[in-house]
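Quick log. Single chain, no ligands specified.
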Amino acid sequence: MTAKSSIPMERYPPSGISILIVGSGIAGLGFAIEAYRKGHSVRIVERRLNFHDRGAVIGIQNPAFEQFKHWPGFMERLQKIMMLPSIRMMKHDLTIIGDFPLGNAKHPAFPMSRPSLHELLYTYVQELGIKVELGKDVVSYFEDESLAGVIYADGTSEKADVVVAADGVGSKAWALITGDKQDAISSGFSVQLATFPSERAMQNPVVAEGWKGLESGLLFNLGHNAHMVIGRSNKEICWMLAHRDFSEADESWSGAGSKEAALQVIDGWAPFFKEIIKAGPDDGVLLWRLMWRDPQPQCVSPLGRLVQIGDAAHPFLPTSAAGASMALEDAYSVASCLQLSGKGSVPLALRAHNLMRFERVCCAQKLGFRNREMFHKTNWDGVEKNPESVSTFAGDWLGNHHVEEYVYDNYGKAAHSVVMGTPFENTNSVPGFKFRPWTVKELLEASDRGQPVVDEGDW
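-> predicted structure:
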């Protein structure tokens, strides 16, 4: 299923497991690379006809970043698109609150533009010789005891030992996994975002002055019921503006925003922010409605041949700063579980993966809500006196984790739990927190009452 690779990647022995990946976003591409390294036979199908990805700045947490070191030459390429792992927090009038490491001081996250990372992953997949087919629109999934498969819009079908649904928030895999797709609940917020070359923007003296000598990194800017994140690398500027919902926004990545609409949101902000928005192309603004779903404890189909990863399994709010990283963590986990199980125990591998991942992902999702509440409800005048109180987006648990090692150490115990129905205790989420599920409804109702979300443990 693969052509000859031009990358000297050292692969594990062939597993004999054939895998069909639906979707070529960060989750799907990342999984294809790691599964190839683990000795699996992989191929990708993608609904779109091109690979022009959209989006703004994302932060790659340490657990996702560390695995890149096993991919020959990838780190060298990545360093060319990375921004410095620092964030300058500012108020909307350009008052500087402070400069901090992004994420966590011990294990910082590394910011970059989503389109640049996507392009890098896709190029690497091509150079590995992994087969990618465009224009393949999956309308449904199916499985039996030995195989899973997909049915395309033209009526044709395709099977493999495993199907990985990396098809985003609109995933059609829910019909097979749970029998129904949970309705999305509006968060009350939308984001507008754009990415464009930095050279022209930096010729604007107002824009250049706003960076105050910073050559790279993030600016995190706070206003009333809105916040704006601006990232700059040596090639690109990315911005994302979160604000009260626009009725015309939707949950897809294809909604068209406008510079005019974004400028209305930041009316009264310092000129720097307005000039950043004006610097981009007129048709380059994306409008994305932030929708939530309750955490789903099951991302594996009844017969254990289909698994969801990334946004298909667990959509994130941008304020978690963990969506892309969790998608990559999923990818590494599934690839490693299948490596350990072998072809004869595929369903057990996917169920063990589900067991080892759900609680960690669920806590990371909740972190996004906690951060949003802090950004939009904190007295920022008081923060100037104690900026460290808002300088950490997440505790050490998010960045101090090694996915592959965790699977190798815990797969046997997780598999035993799946087979015997015995308890399994995860150690990869918030220390000191006794896991309990939550719903979007209860978080939103607490927010409306002005009640802060308080949990035990070191979040």
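The two ends are 43 Å apart (CA to CA).
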